[in-house]
Amino acid sequence: MHKKPHTDAETLIKPSLLACAKHVLGSAAAEKLDKIPLPNDTVKRRISEISQKLEDKLVRLIKDIPICIQLDESTFGAESTLIVCMRFIDNDYINEELLFVDYFKGRCTGQDIFKMVRSYFDSHQISLSQVVSVNTDGARNMTGRDTGFWGCLKREVPQCSFIHWMLHKQALAAKNLQSELHETLNLVIKVVNFVKSSPLNERIPRKLCGDSEAEHDVFLFHTEVRWLSRGKALERVYSIYDQLG
Predict the structure, then answer these.
(1) pTM for the structure as a whole
(2) How large a percentage of the chain has pLDDT more than 90?
């Protein structure tokens, strides 16, 4: 059997990168860029170093200040992933940042989620008492009072408050729409999915909108669990309704 030749960023990305740099910045800039090595290990190491510095800066920024965290546990294929975002006030501004992403090797019960969050906080010397509110969905492993994440955190931080995701509330409310509006929304989503199903279907409305100088020329996909996403998809179709008609 013949082994596939080794390829890396040096051979796959660098030629195009140099061509772009030469076209935009000139030959001198392209020559300087050509002297920078781009093997896989170098690119990986630099990405890791940049991400580590950004994480260290963020951790220093939130030390000893109140923070709000938002948790989402999702399954992609066979892997269960925990995504933790946070909000905090810095110089009178509310900042929202991604705190960390981690993967469960086994079960993902509420206690497992709590252990993962506490492990991250302890390893970065962040006190759980800084968490003033938690924003999650309504899953049992998140909201359970005894073994759920909320129950585990409440025993450690009694003053912490729990907030259910507003987007999930809107999704529940959307199920009770009037029949006419619900049918219209479903029809629009079917049209969008049909247009997005092939490049040809997408090029036709784009040309129609381009010829008539419409404000937009592409449709937006929607996310099933997010009512705001479906609302934006409906709004985009409405904005180019005259061109489609």
Answers:
(1) 0.57
(2) 9
**Range scoring the smallest mean pLDDT among 50-64, 163-177, 189-203:** 163-177
- Phi, psi (rounded to 5 degrees) for 65: -125, 155
Q: How far apart are the first and last CA of the chain?
A: 58
Q: What is the mean pLDDT of residues 194-201?
A: 78
Note down the domain range covering 195.
172-244
Average pLDDT, the chain: 79
157 and 74, same structural domain? yes
Q: Are residues 82 and 146 in the same domain?
A: yes
Closest CA to 8 of 57, 53, 42, 49: 42
The tokens describing 162, both together, are 């729990």
Lowest mean pLDDT among 19-33, 100-114, 170-184, 197-211: 170-184
Whether residue 141 contacts residue 109, with contact meaning beta carbons closer than 8 Å, is answered with yes
- Integer Cα distance of 173 and 171 in angstroms: 5
Helix axes 166-174, 227-239, angle to 10 degrees: 70
Instruction: Name the domain count of the chain.
Output: 3
C-alpha 124: how far from chain center: 23
